DNA sequence: TCCGACACTCTCTTTCAAGTAACTATAGCA
DNA sequence: TGCTATAGTTACTTGAAAGAGAGTGTCGGA
């Protein structure tokens, strides 16, 4: 698939305008689908946490990374890192020494994704209590209604 | 729609500062955990697609919404909408007529989340081909290595 | 009388993502 | 000789999410 073949600069500009306003409306729906697929891959728990950690810490070794990302198993860490590497979000540098030394850091792509997610992060941080309240209200109503 | 009702200028400024730098690092780690939980809930495929659709279309009825969000089952649509309602992202208005008429639209919270995600959306749109290339490269190397 | 529209709701089945825990290779060290 | 550290595999198990598809209630219209 040649993803962005017919995705013009004008369309990207439009996307940017929308981003500052609200709706990413009438773009080619095929692009929408591709984007959704990409977001689906990239927006999982561990990817986001690794992204965050590497954005904060810079370069990290495997074990150190696993310490920062609390609760992750070696398996999940390897798996997620491999996927991120495949998608061009991280680079892994292998030093051929023993015991092995492998360092991970974000690429430009990864860094930019990190700051894109920052908007969501900020939203979440600022609206945590709104959401909390909404939930209580909702649950209260549900209980009252039953 | 009075989206930005209780979103102060100060908060917006703070958000912008966070977004332009990189790490939302040094906040209370408990907040980090909560935020991650919230993002985990909010960042799933259907939620994002519904968010997008409602941001574009404004107010929609159940069946119409299910037409826009391609591939979603009634079950998933109901389930996702209930969760979004619970989190204060959508409001559902029930008109007590027969046949039933229920309309869904985003709240201010939902709209703001939508535009927060927009950054990710734009990232995805702009970097689809980078990711595609990275994958081909990676898969090529993997094949060559094996 | 039966159908269709609408917005669900329920059950059943399958799938797949994620966790656990043990195993690998290698060199230096005691 | 066995132990440790490092960066992973591999096999097995489990739980939760998702899809399919039928059922529900109500009313107006043919």
From TrEMBL, chains A, B:
The keyword Transcription regulation applies. Keywords: DNA-binding, Transcription, Transcription regulation. Residues 28-132 form the HTH hxlR-type domain. InterPro entries: HTH_HxlR, WH-like_DNA-bd_sf, WH_DNA-bd_sf. Pfam families: HxlR. The keyword Hydrolase does not apply. GO terms for molecular function: DNA binding. This is Helix-turn-helix transcriptional regulator. It comes from Acidisoma cellulosilyticum.
């Amino acid at each position: 698939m040649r993803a962005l073949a017919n995705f013009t600069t004008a369309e990207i500009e439009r996307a940017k305008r929308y981003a500052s306003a609200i709706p990413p409306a009438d773009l080619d729906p095929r692009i929408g689908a591709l984007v959704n697929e990409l977001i689906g891959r990239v927006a999982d728990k561990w990817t986001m946490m690794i992204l965050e950690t590497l954005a904060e810490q810079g370069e990290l070794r495997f074990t150190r990374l696993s310490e920062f990302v609390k609760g992750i198993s070696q398996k999940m860490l390897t798996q997620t890192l491999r996927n991120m590497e495949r998608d061009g979000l991280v680079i892994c540098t292998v030093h051929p020494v023993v015991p092995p030394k492998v360092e991970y850091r974000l690429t430009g792509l990864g860094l930019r994704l990190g700051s894109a997610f920052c908007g969501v992060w900020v939203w979440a941080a600022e609206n945590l209590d709104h959401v909390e309240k909404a939930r209580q209200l909702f649950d209260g109503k549900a209980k009252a209604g039953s």
